[in-house]
Amino acid sequence: MKTNRMPTDGFALLVDGLVKTEFEIREGAQRGASDLKQRFPSLKIGIYDAVAKRAEPVEA
């Protein structure tokens, strides 16, 4: 799912600032983000925490 809408619950995988996938648990988002960052290190990958309303970058 590609959207600019931030989720209101759970976690989201951000790619270059856009929401690409939503997850119920943080571990799922972390696994997806790590996999993408390994395959595409030049992309800006992050995880958005809907409860805290903040995004954190994922480093290689």
What's this, in brief?
The chain is built from 1 helix and 4 strands. The protein has 60 residues and is α+β, with helices and mostly antiparallel strands.
Classify the helix fraction into a percent range. 10-25%
Structural class by sheet pairing and helices: alpha+beta
Number of helices: 1
Order of the strands making up the biggest sheet: 2-1-3-4
Count of extended strands: 4
Rounded mean pLDDT score: 92
Describe the global form: globular
Elements, N to C (H/E): EEHEE
| Parts with pLDDT < 50 across at least 5 consecutive residues | none
Strand residue content = 25-35%
Distance between the termini: 24 Å
For the sheet with most strands, the description reads: 4 strands, antiparallel
Radius of gyration: 10 Å
List key phrases describing it.
single chain; 60 residues; alpha+beta; four-stranded antiparallel beta sheet; 1 helix; 23% helix
Task: Give a written overview of the molecule.
By secondary structure, the protein is of the alpha+beta class. It contains one helix and four strands. It has one helix at residues 26-39; strands spanning 11-15, 18-23, 45-49, 54-57. The chain has a four-stranded antiparallel beta sheet with strand order 2-1-3-4, with helices on one face. Strand 1 (11-15) and strand 2 form a beta hairpin. The chain starts with 10 loop residues before the first strand and ends with a strand. The model has no long low-confidence stretch (mean pLDDT 92).
